Amino acid sequence: QVRDEYGRFKIWSGNIAAHHTGRRSLEYRLRDASHIREQVVVLLVELEETLESSKY
């Protein structure tokens, strides 16, 4: 199940250009919404910790 969720995450992150740089990047698109950007970072850190603790 973790692998399925990881696969979905990879698709989602690709769809929103999370790994891109420049104007296509998620960071660039959230540049004027710091409160949303901060929340996205918190959620991604929590996701990373959950995946690490599952020993995927």
Q: How does this model look, in words?
A:
With 56 residues, the chain is mainly α. The chain has one domain (2-53). Helix content is 68%, strand content 0%. The model has no long low-confidence stretch (mean pLDDT 85).
Topology, please?
Elements: H1 2-15, H2 26-29, H3 34-53
Overall pLDDT level = 85
- N-to-C SSE series? HHH
Say how many strands there are.
Answer: 0
Q: What is the CA-based Rg, rounded? A: 13 Å
Structural class, judged by helices and strands?
Answer: mainly alpha
Short description:
This protein is mainly α and 56 residues long.
List keywords for this structure.
0% strand; single chain; flat; mainly alpha; 3 helices; 68% helix; 56 residues
